Amino acid sequence: MKKSIIKYGILLFSLATTFSCTKLDEEVYSSVAADNFFRNEAEVMTNVGRIYAQMRKITSRFGAGSLDLVGTDECIIPFRETNLWYDNGLWIALHQHKFDPNLSVMSGGYSFCFDGISMCNQILYQLENSPVDFPTKPKIFAEVKIARAFFYYRALDWFGNVPISTDFTDVTLPQQSTRAQVWDFVVGEITANIAALDDAPSTNNYGRTCTKAMANMMLSKLYLNAEKWRGVSKYDEAIAAADAVIATPGYQLSDDYFANFTPTNEGSKENIFVVPYDKTKTPGNILQIHCWTLHTLSQQTFGLIAFTWDGYAGMEDFYNSYASTDKRINSWLVGPQYSAGGAPLMLNSTRQLTYRNHINALYNPTAPALLDDGVRFKKYGYESGLKDNESMSNDWVVFRYADALMTKAEAIMRKNGGIANQTAVDLVNQVRFRAFGDHTHDYTIATLTMDELLAELGREFAWEYHRRQDLIRFGKWNTPWFEKAAGTVNDELYPLPTAVLNVNPNLHQNPGY
After folding, report:
1. What is this structure's pTM?
2. Which end of the chain is less enclosed by CB atoms within 10 A, N or C?
3. DSSP character for 440?
């Protein structure tokens, strides 16, 4: 299916950057009066498309992408021989949970959220003040509010105590809200607007995936994390929201796990909420997983032209949690490496590039990690011919149908004191069956423990930006793992960036920073 994303302005990166803002005090960026800006429905949709261009920053290495990945037990960026990947200690600090308000990723993640929120507020203001009318205008209002709720959902998760700003014309510095207040706001926005949304995206508006299924998936996550985020349990509500996703027509588990992550994954029946990328149509904020993880010699394996950076790798214990017969283990590249034609890829005359699960050290200048330490990520299929500064065409998966099944199972178990019942077991086994192709590896009520569920979530959703949230919810974020000491509850929120605090004196730093 062709990606029909140009029509709705998702590719208008220049517009998105023109209107972006990193400050908390919102400014009017357009000099065009609201009653002149929208002359027809097409112009409205072009403007709404800027929101989805902003969402492409979700995979930014120096922002949103690193906040959900690098500090988890599924990913490591070690300092490697030949002095690779030090970057002023950024990746070491994230891995060791030595979070600092001056780290670039904090400002990048905060800007991802609040640039998006400001953009949504501006569009809502212009919609409200534009005389142009058409039948789908109420649905567009709802779509923009759900998009704004998504940006707040990320801010709620990462930073917790953030301002709530909805009035684009209010240029006063906003007051800080508590995490509980932000949770209430996001849930309220979703429940108030969900009825007006489409059930699912259609073929002619691919990429505009703020739909009922997406909104219900986000609700299920808000309810599942309510004990941490709101201070109350909401497991019945999490089950109901997951049920609403499961009941949405058209979604199902893909027969092939990896079909959800190919360069043509817009045809997936499992993917509920994606961020579209395309190597020719989405300039600016691009997806470069191949560059993050592969040694440059692996260009010859995948037919890549782009120079690759030999950085991100899977953690040893995480990789070892897979059974050898689990098809999902093929998310990782391991062992001696060869070109597409079968020739050994040689680091020197006697040393073949051999990705191994072991990593010597996170940071040891005298005995650093080797160039080929760590298994490499290949769940997202690599398209041959990719050049430098060219995006992958795989759409980034945020929510998929398997997540609804697993969320419901977890909520059932938590409601039952951490004990599985047959319904929870059956839900998890639906997902697990695909990984093995038979029922010989099915869980039972006795074997599906909370620890095993967390491990299964890791294997199913590896590097899909779920793991930090999952580890916190399961009480494992602050436990020690390779090259990371035990932490405290304060580590479950990131610090507000120093630059943000300097702009707005109404804000106070999160505890522990």
Report:
1. 0.93
2. N
3. T
